[in-house]
């Protein structure tokens, strides 16, 4: 498959996953929404609309490259080829989950593909610097990519980690996905400047802002930053404008949005836009698209079915895995 | 005289206390993440933004060190900030400002600086929010000197303790349990939704509440374990076991006398806690008994708490770690044997 | 066979253990503030920079969250970092990385991620460094699950426990007490400077050391209080009181059996600790006794610890807060009455 | 007294204080240096050489303006008119100390002149933002000034506080004193860019670097930043190049310095340079200078004598003041 089509397919897979996860999460939660009910309890932060960020960047990564992700992790995990079945089983809290049910949606770990995430805002930055140090120490040209929301760019760890990576010339790419909001707080009421990428200047590293939620533009900027890191030239900072199609978490009434704000975002859905451009460039046919939609739907249903069939863990298993 | 029952959820009781104190004192301000239009993720600041405006109810960036630390400078200059740390689990990004400064400046200044700050935060699990969003952790803050530690178990106490907290001239950490708030979208214990008078009132710190007298055994507990203990008390009454339930309400100051007295009365003590078992609240209460009520104990002290594991995500795993009414009842029965 | 005594200060014992493990395993790296040319403010990394160079012994910016968090990513990718937090008192700027990630990732990953990290840090007061530079605080870290907690009392243990820590596949917090290091410019207890074999050796975690047998009363303690308890033991022997001294050595894992056994043997227990008194180590040990040795106790358990105040600066004030040999001895005598 | 002469006098007072404190601190600590011995135990971070930073900035402040200072606090405290006797008694740990001996050298609090400090690097930033918020809330035009070393500019609190102050347009001036080292670690091995003032761009606020340890240049830049803050235009960031005449703390062997490095600094002593320029401009005569030296020496001796005569606190006083 051509690279653009491969990226398109991955975006479709993520979208399908998030849409289905929204449905699965809703099971057992009506008529009254209850966070603790249904087959998938707990918080659920979905990334539909934000696919280009994950796909545009991670497309350039190897299995050995590290990705650290935030509380909204599915798109990053899927793009990094985290085992979809085991990831889904984890979100269902089942024994075949990546962590046998101990982690859940915000705590997906797949060391096989060097993926991890965290529920703490800003926590994805420091470990990426450390992984990069390990690569450099061994003379490997792997890189680490830390993803976080625009809200996370106001955390102390952002500053400390960028400075540390820049000082150490560590092969890290810091990627901020700007979906305009941190829960209910708009970027312009929490961030003193318009573009976090301008903060790169505080560390003497390149900073690029990518508008338009456009996977090819993202891919281009990411490719450059990753090549730079692999070549030993140190870290970069990217900020990528994107849009959040669901609420902050499922169940969010989004009363803080301006009227019509969501519609504007949905109208700019990156997936149909990308598909149309692939059609126009004759990189994709309608038949191929149908095949892709079918394939990703099957993958997602397979993963969900796998998760549903996986047994619940035994209660006393809670006591294991505190120490290695 | 007519007595009307005015049942309020704990979330409403908290926000009502804050609103009344804000109306009373223009120096009371509220800030934190999503405390404005959103009204606080757990509703503790609902309606305040609409009533008092954005100059007194302020949404902050995700910068807990800066905005909690800001409460230090602001209170030293005469404000009385109420700051929300969204989940207690996030304390680690701001702990230096909390315990090295907010907690210690009064002492380090020889009493010349006072910092009237309420730091309120959500605690507790039970809804599969996993290891970074389900802890109670109050023992950590009770361990370091300089912070008052408040953990209400019901709406009446929540309002009175919040009013006391706001009027206190010391830093007060106020922990509300998500499973007591009456949020609708979160499982909540009905027991916590009780009559709450409309007018402002205070509840003194350091006074445990005797939730139900008993003669055979005492359960000493706090927060969301209080309703559970009370239910066990009702249940065991039918089995002929008379359980006394002590709600500590505040850990600092701690009502040592009440702890000792209940032990002297019933001669058997079970401590129930939703914090980690070791090096925490349950240990401290047991230690007080070993020091000051040893000769009155007819059987070993027992503790039920989170068994020193991070809180797991999966429902059966999580439920296994949190003391349940079944396990509390079984433990009481075993202690009566 | 000749036995030569090779006395080493604790600082040298620690740096020797690190050097030996660095020579053994190229994945062992050291980083932190002033660990390079300076050799660590307390000498724990002395000579390492000269021996292993700046690629393996790395001075960091004052960015504790970033460089402690970096150990998480680095260890997940195969390094075995030893990271120094200069004073434990600074933990609050980096606690989220320590307890929400370093401590929990193994559990949250269902065991698939291992993080072999040693986080070493200086503890203790006694030289007027005041409230932000004199604490021990190990109880806080023992309270949250996922961290092994090591507190050596002498140079021999310091080396063996450091070697074990580096080879352990879990995050280990290693607390060295400034007053045991033998630094020259800092008052240091001679007791800690003992024979240390040159070759590498390990000391298992979770095994308390019986520092001196006794039959009348047990002192259970750790760290810098061990030499003090030992001196009291010598002193009281002359008064006809036979004191047993138990050095816990690690708080996680905790040698519960040794605690229970000594209580069963002597029937009297005094716990001595340099951490804050409430909600900490002394409470946990007392609780274990109340649970598992109640019927063997002939008198109430007693605790000596920092009396829940921030550590004051002034010499007479500070000396008042730290358990002294005099106060330990007086308490033992009172307990024997 | 003219403003420049007043500044000169204040610098001399600080220098005299620090030089005498070095001597007092050494009492009881020879032949073998012991941190716990002598009338003044504990750590001792002296600021000789750094007087221009404190004086150039604080000269423009009112009593009601807030200063938050770091672990090396004497020059800031003296410039802010902290009670010299009680400050000295505090450093001696005596009952007449600002905190009756509970705080000590790194924990000087004088609420009368709105001064505080902390032993934790980077901790001076957040409280200053809060104080500024209090002023703004009351419609007062007071300002808050947070001082810290260049090492502190890599702490998370630096970033969070600058962003918060900029977002809130709070009247804060952040002042970094760059004395080239954080203990043994040189600025260029810990900080990814040469000038921390360039980090102002990350918050959309003015950033000024002031070279040469020159009190008048500092005063000018500070005056502008303070006026800006008083006018409601928000925060500024200043970085001031300066030099540390003593070690990081007393007892520091300074083995990490390059040969001759200290001599270069001492040769550029800001006090004689400033005195000579005052002489040249006929703002100061030699006689006046003698009088100033005598006056400040007397003030310092008076404070030290006051401290020595003040009684030690009663041991059990350790138990008071935990709560108000
Ligand atoms: C340290 C910390 N503070 C607060 C939170 C609560 N929280 C979770 S997600 C979130 C908003 C994050 O916004 P952003 O970084 O923009 O990511 P987005 O949710 O928009 O993807 C907040 C405040 C947290 N998890 N951790
Ligand atoms: C959070 C924290 N980390 C480390 C330290 C130890 N420490 C004290 S002063 C210092 C160096 C500070 O350097 P800088 O900010 O440049 O100030 P300077 O000492 O040069 O005036 C360090 C690392 C501390 N006190 N607090
Ligand atoms: Mg966002
Ligand atoms: Mg410096």
From TrEMBL, chains A, D:
- Is tRNA processing found in the keyword set? no
Top-rank taxon: Bacteria
Keywords for this protein: Oxidoreductase, Pyruvate, Thiamine pyrophosphate
Question: Which cofactors?
Answer: thiamine diphosphate
Enumerate the InterPro entries for this protein: DH_E1, PDH_E1_Alpha_Subunit, THDP-binding
**What's the protein here called?**
Pyruvate dehydrogenase (Acetyl-transferring) E1 component subunit alpha
- Per UniProt, residues of the Dehydrogenase E1 component domain are 42-315
Q: What Gene3D superfamilies is this protein classified in? A: 3.40.50.970
Q: CDD domains recorded for this chain?
A: TPP_E1_PDC_ADC_BCADC
Automatic annotation (TrEMBL), chains B, C:
Enumerate the InterPro entries for this protein: THDP-binding (IPR029061), Transketo_C/PFOR_II (IPR009014), Transketolase-like_Pyr-bd (IPR005475), Transketolase_C (IPR033248)
Q: Which SUPFAM superfamilies match?
A: Thiamin diphosphate-binding fold (THDP-binding), TK C-terminal domain-like
Q: Which UniProt keywords apply?
A: Oxidoreductase, Thiamine pyrophosphate
Q: Which residues form the Transketolase-like pyrimidine-binding domain?
A: 8-183
Q: Does the keyword Kinase apply?
A: no
Pfam families the record matches: Transket_pyr (PF02779), Transketolase_C (PF02780)
Kindly list the cofactors needed.
thiamine diphosphate
> Which PANTHER family does this UniProt record tie to the protein?
PYRUVATE DEHYDROGENASE E1 COMPONENT BETA SUBUNIT, PYRUVATE DEHYDROGENASE E1 COMPONENT SUBUNIT BETA
Q: What is this protein called?
A: Alpha-ketoacid dehydrogenase subunit beta
